[in-house]
Amino acid sequence: MDRAQLPLNALRAFEAAARHLNFTRAAIELCVSQGAVSHQVAGLEKRLGARLFHRLPRGLALTDDGQALVPVLAETFDRIGATLDRFADGRFQYVLNIGVVGTFATGWLLARLDDFAATHPHIDLRVSINNNRVDLAGEGLDYAIRFGDGAWHGTHAERLMAAPLTPLCAPLVATRLREPGDLVRERLLRSYRVSEWESWFAAAGAPAPALRGPMFDSSALMVAAAMAGLGVALAPKVMFGHELTTERLVQPFAIEIDAGCYWLTRLLSRKEGLAMKAFRQWLMEAVQH
Question: What's the whole-model pTM score?
Answer without folding.
Answer: 0.74
